[in-house]
Amino acid sequence: MELYCKKCNNLLTQTPLKKSTFKEVKFIDEEELLQNGKYIEASKIDYNFEIPIDYFVNTESILLENHKDTIRLQGCCGPGEFGKLNQVCPRCKFEIGILIADCWTSRFIGIDESKVSKKPLWK
Q: N or C terminus: fewer CB in 10 A for the chain?
């Protein structure tokens, strides 16, 4: 699966992401939830977000930047807010996903499917 920004059509994944199984998920605090190059449907994992999140992606597998509003990056030891998108497209700054990287949870980026496309919208 490739992901493109729905606002500017920027490719956000360096290589196509491969679907992960629940058995491959690692629930280890402060470590990656998934292997590099992998994603899993958010409905397969029991995290309760206050906003729509459809996919979890390894943090190294998608090219996003931190939101300019630093309050969205709050947490104990890293971003851990489950209610606001804090990752943006590096080209147009469109809000795409949420980085979770606090000390009490595994590290991943949650993606709102309504913000991305799996194919380029235009050429």
A: C
Q: With a threshold of 0.85, does the pTM exceed it?
A: yes
pLDDT band at 74 (very low <50, low <70, confident <90, very high): confident
Distance CA 16, CA 23 (A): 21
In angstroms, the Cα distances linking 27 to 4, 51, 60, 74 are 28, 22, 17, 21
Q: DSSP letter for 4, please.
A: E
Exposure of 28 in the CB half-sphere (CA atoms within 13 A): 7
Give the C-alpha separation, 7 to 40, whole Å: 23
Tell me the C-alpha distance between 85 and 60, whole Å.
18
Closest CA to 35 of 60, 11, 14: 60
- pLDDT of 18 over the 80 cut: yes
